[in-house]
Amino acid sequence: MPSYKIVATDLDGTLLNDAHTVSEENFNAIRALTKKGIHCVVATGRTYSEIPEEIRGCKDFRYMIHANGAVVLDRESGERISACIPNAVACRMMDIFKDYAVHMTARNNGMCYYDGRYPIREWQEYFRIDPAHVSCVGEFGTPIANFDAFVRGMEEIEVFSLYFRDDTEQKECGERLKEIDGIYITGTSATNFEIFDRGAGKDNALLRLASHLGVPIEETMTLGDSENDLAMTRAAGLGLATANAQSALLSASDGTVCSNNEHVMQYVLEKYFS
Questions:
Q1: CA separation (Å) from 26 to 29, 146, 209, 263?
Q2: If we measure between CA atoms, which residue out of 231, 267, 235 comes closest to residue 248?
Q3: Per-residue confidence in pLDDT tens, the chain, 274 aa
Q4: What separation, in Å, do the N-terminal and C-terminal C-alpha atoms of the chain show?
Q5: CATH homologous superfamily for 6-82+201-272?
């Protein structure tokens, strides 16, 4: 069996249980892995400020992959290895977005911002916003009065998230965005676009981190539960899915661990590092 040096875990549905907390068993396992010289790494679609405080307060997570791989953060040195949307490209995108009825958030430097004209809870139904997004942005997002000017003033963007009022407008916007090089578009629901720099993605972030640490990719292990973990799972030396994972990830993984309610990091410690 290879000697794994990096264990990268997704948060929602993986490290976090259904109560959205991390069990003491998992924290104990993370500490034990760190003592063995293993790099335990968060790999999440959330931006840094949206990561639960109990995880941000855990010193054993030195490295965090956040904003779906747009940033690899070394919390000890403050260094950011990033693949973000540059200002010129973001401004081109804003020229397109202004033609449509959308609720927009922009993540930058670990923070989440949204258009202050549309308080997210009040406009949830109108823009068909997913409840999980409402909960996260409602708790961690900052409303901005002149959102257009604010975004155009940013040096770079980690991710844009858009929810559309109208299906036809969403389709048309998507076609226009295809004309912009260097980005990729995904989504978490039928009414949503999430837009990243083409160099982002959890898989690319894992490769950048492994290179930074001098760890062969064969010596990396990942844990995930959903389709946005697919690329990372395929890139890793050992890509594992939780028992509660979506079928596509279960099919693509190299193996299965316990469910997110059964202490995944403890499972990994006992099976692969004991």
A1: 5, 42, 23, 5
A2: 231
A3: 679 999 999 999 999 999 999 999 999 999 999 999 999 999 998 999 999 999 999 999 999 999 999 999 999 999 999 999 999 999 999 999 999 999 999 999 999 999 999 999 999 999 999 998 998 899 999 999 999 999 999 999 999 999 999 999 999 999 999 999 999 998 878 999 999 999 999 999 999 999 999 999 999 999 999 888 999 999 999 999 999 999 999 999 999 999 999 999 999 999 999 8
A4: 12
A5: HAD superfamily/HAD-like (3.40.50.1000)
Q: What is the CA radius of gyration of the chain?
A: 19
- Furthest-apart CA pair in the chain: how many Å? 57
Q: Which of 226, 229, 257, 259 is nearest to 244 (CA)?
A: 259
Given the candidates 3.90.580.10, 2.30.30.240, 3.50.50.60, 3.30.1240.10, the CATH classification of the domain at 85-197 is 3.30.1240.10
Query: Distance between CA atoms of 205 and 63, rounded to whole angstroms?
Result: 11
Question: Rounded distance, CA 96 to CA 77, Å?
Answer: 37
| Structural contact between residues 235 and 253, judged by C-beta atoms closer than 8 angstroms | no
What tokens does 157 get?
């963007």
CA distance 252 to 260: 18
Amino acid, res. 22 = V
| Six-digit token string for 193 | 């676009």
Return the closest-CA partner of residue 142 out of 109, 170, 189: 109
Whole-prediction pTM value? 0.88
* Residue carrying structure tokens 């956040």: 66
